[in-house]
Design goal:
Elements: H1 2-33
Length: 34
């Protein structure tokens, strides 16, 4: 039960981190090219 909770809890966290990195990279590229 605890193992499934951990797996379900880690995936959205990883997705959130990936999303923030993606947004950060896009922002940086936009700043550099404007």
């Amino acid at each position: 039960s605890l193992k499934t909770l951990k797996t379900v809890g880690v995936k959205p966290l990883l997705l959130g981190v990936t999303l923030w990195i993606f947004i950060g990279v896009i922002s940086l590229v936009t700043i550099l090219f404007i």
